[in-house]
Specification:
- By secondary structure, the protein is an alpha+beta fold.
- It has two domains: about 60 residues, no CATH class; about 240 residues, no CATH class.
- It is built from eleven helices and 13 strands.
- The strands form three sheets. It has a seven-stranded mixed β-sheet, with helices on both faces. Strands 1-2-3-4 form a four-stranded antiparallel β-sheet.
- A hairpin with a 2-residue loop joins strand 3 and strand 4.
- Helix 5 crosses helix 7.
């Protein structure tokens, strides 16, 4: 049985780019790799460092048991790991909750960054970089539709979000909409953030959905989430060019943000596409680097065009983290986090 006792977390300076099918990515590791099952595949496993090695990176892996998964997950969560284990891992309130042990997990990055911003009371500064006029209230954090309460060590579903999902996706049983991050001042403000780490924004496809799935086609997405939506105003969108690339995940975030705001009795909503500038630079000319803002603004009515914001993780670093001594650990994390065994972010100072 493949198991490892390693509890160390690895960062970009610990790693080397190598043929991941042949070698452990940890520098100066000469361990003989084992083969372990992963679905229908056999993947290399370094027992010395507790890493299952994939073509694009690695996964912390300590063994097949539930307690092994907890250890592996904690290794990728430098902030508030106990809270995640208690409230999310295998708790049925987070899709794919067992995958935060992946090096390239954008959920793990989102969790690390935003729970640390919450614990150090730095979310307000981020919100004030997004909205005008300036807000002075405390900002609440929801991850994957769940309120985060680090003080009481509890979580519960965000009520407005659950009402919208029941209204729009009551018959969907597979992969319901699950905004990565929601920042809220209850009754006054809703910001949905769609976070990307190493991946691109998904687009609508001319495929038929399976029973119980969300629509995949542009026309069926528009019909379900906008035309049949009994919550939001019908003046938000204007769809002129059916040939334009349709970013379906961002579209759903806009619908959910506007719908949650309406349920709460206000119209103060925003949607942020949070991307990785370093990946955009490396992937220039590929879908990961495509400009998003012009596309999204083209389908928003004029009075809603300021509701969509494009930010990068590097922007968050500069705006909120770099000069805040209370966030020195988060600063270190963003400077040293790895992506596919290399640099994750364009953060240098």
């Amino acid at each position: 049985m493949a198991k490892s006792n390693c509890t160390i977390s690895f960062f970009r300076n610990d790693l080397q780019r190598t043929r991941l099918s042949d070698h452990c990515p940890v520098r100066n590791c000469y361990a003989d790799l084992q083969k372990i099952s992963f679905g229908k595949y056999q993947l290399p496993f370094c027992y010395e460092h507790g890493l299952r090695i994939h073509p694009s990176g690695f996964v912390y892996y300590n063994g097949p048991s539930g307690s092994d998964l907890e250890i592996a997950t904690r290794r990728n969560l430098l902030f508030n790991g106990d809270y995640y284990i208690l409230n999310f891992l295998r708790q049925h309130n987070k899709m794919e909750s067992s995958r935060l042990c992946y090096e390239n997990s954008e959920d793990a990055v989102s969790y690390n960054v935003f729970t640390e911003l919450l614990s150090k009371k730095a979310l307000r500064k981020l919100v004030n970089a997004i909205v005008k006029p300036e807000i002075h209230e405390d900002v609440s954090l929801c991850l994957w539709g769940n309120n985060i309460n680090l003080i009481n060590k509890t979580t519960k579903p965000y009520d407005s979000f659950m009402k919208v999902r029941k209204e729009l996706e009551g018959d969907i049983t597979r992969f319901n909409t699950e905004p990565d991050i929601i920042l809220t001042i209850p009754g006054k403000l809703v910001i949905c953030i769609e976070a990307k780490f190493g991946s691109k924004n998904p687009i609508a496809k001319e495929h038929k959905e399976e029973f119980g799935e969300k629509p995949k086609k542009r026309e069926r997405l528009i019909k379900r989430y906008w035309e049949n939506n009994r919550i939001i105003s019908k003046d938000i969108f204007v769809f002129r060019d059916p040939s334009r690339v349709f970013y379906e995940q961002i579209f759903r975030n806009i619908v959910f943000a506007a719908s949650m705001a309406r349920i709460e009795g206000h119209n103060n909503w925003y949607v942020v596409n949070l991307r990785n500038q370093h990946v955009m630079n490396l992937k220039r000319g590929k879908p990961e680097s495509y400009p998003i803002k012009r596309n999204i603004l083209s389908m928003l009515n004029s009075k809603y065009k300021d509701r969509f914001i494009h930010l990068t993780w590097e922007n968050i670093y500069e705006l909120v983290v770099a000069n805040n001594e209370d966030l020195s650990n988060l600063k270190w994390y963003l400077k040293n986090k790895s992506l596919s065994c290399g640099r994750a972010f364009n953060v240098l100072r």
